[in-house]
Amino acid sequence: MTASALLSRLRLPVVAAPMFLASGPELVIAASRAGIIGSFPTPNCRTIAELDGWLTQITTALGTGPDAVPWALNLITHSTNTRLSADLEQVAKHHPPIVITALGSPRPVVDVVHAYGGIVLADVVSLTLARKAADAGADGLVCVSAGAGGHTGSLSPLPFIAAVRDSFEGLVCVGGGIATGAGVAGAVAAGADLVYMGTRFLASRESIALEGHKQMVVDSGIDDLVVSAAITGTPASWLRPSLAAVGIDPAATAVVARDYSTEMSNIRRWKDTWAAGQGLSTIRAIDTTAQIVDRLAEEYAAALDRAGRLAFAR
User: Which residues constitute the signal peptide according to the record (predicted)?
Assistant: First the structure.
């Protein structure tokens, strides 16, 4: 699938971002059927057998080959992910149309995905990493910016898009605090092809996040977020009330070893410590994915109309 073919098949240029312990097959299927790109990270499956089952469920619902409804699989390519080779075997078996790499180089993934005609996107948090990912063969770059939930970035979205666009001709996706259709329109106007939205879909009916996590997203605002490396060793955006509930001081400076494996000791770091991005202030209910996409489409159209009227007025 080419980049232009992918974009032409979407109702909105949005990716329901892969969220640890929140994205599952129901959310992927609902998002993709609604006209955006659904995705999930492989560590949400405890075993390869479970991953195989999820991928079978998704491909049965969304199809395979050139006619498949677009969806994405997220792979952790950091050296601590000892299951990467086994995950890649499942990629070669099920042919997800899009594979998103995170926390490491896309190089181990590119040949496998390109062999069956898939697209590789790479999460990046700096221009240096963007250049390395492009050199490794990524078809697109996901600019993880300040305001993103979970493992977050530090760069502002608009200058990050501009800097990447200056030297990269592939797909550019951006994420970081965008939770409305107007935000999508703004990112597209700034040069993005796609927009990552995680938190907006965390509080969906189809999300596998704990109900307490979903409700905390609805009940919280930007001031309830804190960026801390105290949980995983990498800066991430957390809901402060969830840290307080388990007695974690977000200001702690103790060094935490980075670990992105599927071992239960690592999973427990996230189970009761809940992440969210800065777009949570616009989320006021736990809705279905279809309802969320409908609302985003209305907001997107209204934002484009407003921009057009302002341009015409000048």
Answer: 1-16
